[in-house]
Amino acid sequence: MGNEFRVDREMVVGAYTELVRQMSAKRIRRLAEHLRSRELSLNQYSILNIVHYEEGCSSIQLANRLQLKAASITYLVDSLEKRKLVTRVENPEDRRSHTIHLTEEGLELVCVPENHAEMFGMFEQLGQDELEMLYLAMRLIRSKCLGEEQEH
Amino acid sequence: MGNEFRVDREMVVGAYTELVRQMSAKRIRRLAEHLRSRELSLNQYSILNIVHYEEGCSSIQLANRLQLKAASITYLVDSLEKRKLVTRVENPEDRRSHTIHLTEEGLELVCVPENHAEMFGMFEQLGQDELEMLYLAMRLIRSKCLGEEQEH
DNA sequence: TATTGTTATACTCTATAACTATA
DNA sequence: TATAGTTATAGAGTATAACAATA
User: For a tag site, which of A53, B37, B115, B128 has the least CB within 10 Å?
Assistant: First the structure.
């Protein structure tokens, strides 16, 4: 019989677009919940996140990453410093500049709890073959389609 | 020979989490760009979006969907009405209430251009077999894992 | 001179509370 | 009384411009 069913790139693009829309919606909802309950704005959270993954970061770097003006970064870092979530440390190599670091308390807010049970639940209905297909497909997307993406 | 390589749910959850992170990052970046260039805030855009898909919508509905107070909706809708992106129409069934509709100009801003060329480019390296596997996997996720999600 | 970052100020967005009009 | 929405006001977040300290 063979496979008369033809999948073309147009179909894949359509399916991908719709999938990203749905997957993102779920993820964004969980993040929003996390931020509301911790009384963090999105940009405050992003600063914690970037500082965490960069293991220390200057104002200028934050301004570039977040597409905000330096003055806004000063305001936001002030607000985080008051809550003892970050500290400014002098940069010995350039005395104009400070490096922003996470405190222990800041570190605790960076991780959005994944709700592991819910994640597991998502894949509950899948059999072993389906799990394997999915896993291969996801690895394929990451290696051949998403390319150099690496955002924290 | 068989397939000795075992994929378990833990691996699938891990791969899925990472994939969503990367896919969302790309999508969010494009949306942010769209909004910046159109001088729309995220909530202004969300209002256009909801009003579009609901084909007209009351303030209360918007407040619920966006988790904002009624006064904030008034402010945002005012700002959109001044730019002639939406109109308030009296609701004949309840004279306290207005229905918010998109104008032609508003409609133009709702669609975030998908950058079709870039999307196509993403799947450029895939052969026919890979395209088919991907397509099936994406349909599988939507039908068996994401469930009832339907967000606009 | 150029760069890093802060301060002063104004504008946008959001919440709270008091209010109007209608149900 | 309750509900849909607005107005007035205060506080958070962001941008612009002027500035200080350092490169």
Answer: B37
